[in-house]
Each structure stands twice: as C-alpha cells, then as structure tokens.
Amino acid sequence: MNQNIAQNEAVLNEAATQQQPALAPPVDVIEDASGITLYADLPGVPRDRLDIRVEGDQLSIEGEMQLPMRDGLEGTHAEITLPRYRRVFNLSRELDSEKVAAELRDGVLTLRIPKAEHAQPRRISVQAG
User: Fold this and answer.
1) Cα gap 121→128, rounded to integer Å
2) Which of 8, 96, 109, 110 is the most exposed place for a label (fewest CB within 10 A)?
3) pLDDT in tens, the chain (129 residues)
C-alpha cells in the first residue's frame, strides 16, 4: 500500500514539475552518416540536477540551475529568473534510442544518438556474372 502511495506521489511530483515554466535551452543538432549529435547549452546545471529521458519516440531534457553563492554575498540582479530548462524532441525511427550516450561538460550537454542498424549506410557488393 505504501509503495502505491509513493508511486502516486512520484507521478504527481513529475507532472507538477513538467507544468512549471522553463527556459528552452539553445540546441545544435548535427547529423552524420552514423547518427546525430545534439549540443544543448545548460549553464549552471549540475549533473545531479539533469534528467534525460527517452519515452517512445520522444527525447526530453530537463535541468535545474544551481548557482552557488558565497557566504555573505547576495545576488542583486538576475537576468534569468527561471531556474529550469526543458526541451522535448521527437526522434526519428531511424535512430537507435537504446544507445544514447550523454556527457555534460562546462555547461554543455552532448548527446550522441546513433542510427539504427537498418538505417545505417551499407555497401552492396556486385558479383561478376
């Protein structure tokens, strides 16, 4: 019973999080013969506040900024008032969503999504007749 309550609370918390206003981070997508590479600018988002999910044919990226303040200092001006990033992409069936690789470095998230085996270019040999 308690497990069901905890699961219901998790679902409600996730739904509430998705309804909160969020910034859409700038993203570059580069395609090559073997897949796509996605670069998303997420300044101020630590690895433990980043959530990347693939559900069906949707890729979602969510992150919450965490800007530490030194003791005794106080922020006087903020140009970015929303502490959350969110972006959702529809993935092509040509991509293999089971093999997504992610790296976060210096505020830039890099996702590599290879093409599925059936979508990979292949060479067909011609036999002499």
Assistant:
1) 23
2) 8
3) 445 555 545 444 454 455 789 999 999 999 998 999 999 999 999 999 999 999 999 999 999 998 777 888 877 877 777 789 999 999 999 999 999 999 999 999 999 999 988 777 778 889 887
pTM above 0.90, yes or no: no
10 token code pair: 């998790």
Distance of alpha carbon 35 from alpha carbon 101, whole angstroms:
12
The per-residue DSSP string of 49-90 comes to GEEEEEETTEEEEEEE------TT------S----EEEEEEE
Q: Give residues with Cβ within 8 angstroms of 75, minimum separation 6.
A: 69
Which H or E element spans position 16? helix 2-19
